Amino acid sequence: MAIRFGWDLGGVNVKLARVEDGRVASVTQIPCPALTEPRKFDLAVEEALGLVGDSNASHAVTMTGELSDVFASRYEGVAYLVGLMRKAVGDEVRFYSLGGFVDAHGAVTGWQGVASANWHASAALAATVEESGLLVDAGTTTTDIIPFKEGRPCAAGRTDGDRLTEGELIYRGVVRTPVMAIASQAPFKGRMQGLAAERFATMADVYRLTGELPEDADPFPSADNRAKDLEESAARLARMLGRDAEDADIVAWRALAHFLARRLLDQVEADARAVIERDDLSLEAPIVGAGCGRFLAVALAGRLGRPYRDFADLTPCAEEAQEMVSRCAPAVAVAQLA
């Protein structure tokens, strides 16, 4: 049996996909410990290695963790993570680059093509199945909007900075993003009012109240380190308005959550429309949804009147692995493309 592992080294999670004879058998997400030093990656990778076992497998790696503030620069981050994976799984490990897979030496010397290239891998795999489309990967922290056409990604941006400029990367997600990053005003009791510029609540609170967030999608401490039930989520949103949860009923707090959820979807829609028009994607080109927040992609497809495809539908996988295949698209992609 041919076994390949795909790794996506993020600053918050390490994701590991196992592919057996071309079929995704399992996908695991391991949170990085909350440390302010690079060792957090070592610990997460060490835990992941326990799932790898002693199999004679090949390994492919992509990353975004080099952007973590535990590193002084992105180059330092790439070099550290390359060295870590070479030590962990051997010299034969391959790293995904915008120009194709490279070895450890090529990953360090060509670090600009390796840094935060995971989005490209996901779109490249989607492009092997669909002739054209728009990949929308909504994760805990960011949302990627990546067009692909004629069998390859056709994004205008190459780096995170360029993609932020092009509207292909929105540094907002469905879990960790502070509510203050979504809106500066919101309606309450029939009037618009300002929101606090404080991390009193996150989008995880919003989507818990709208009922859209998967229960296991938020492994992080809440903004106030309290519980993650509906009542505490409402209390955190109330604090954003300088109020207490008792100032309104749960219906009002749910209405506020839906308003904030629409604001994020509005931004995703605006950027998606611009990218679609720029690249002249046909009306039949689907929205491909990935990430724990791909309910945004489903809603976007409805707004745009386009077909929707789940990322897990694009690659052979075990039925029990489908959810995590879609959530951890880059790890799956590098395993399948290697």
From TrEMBL:
InterPro entries: ATPase_NBD, Hydantoinase_A, MfnF. It holds the Pfam family Hydantoinase_A. Gene3D superfamilies: 3.30.420.40, conserved archaeal protein q6m145. Residues 59-305 form the Hydantoinase A/oxoprolinase domain. One of its GO terms (molecular function) is hydrolase activity. This is COG1548 family protein.
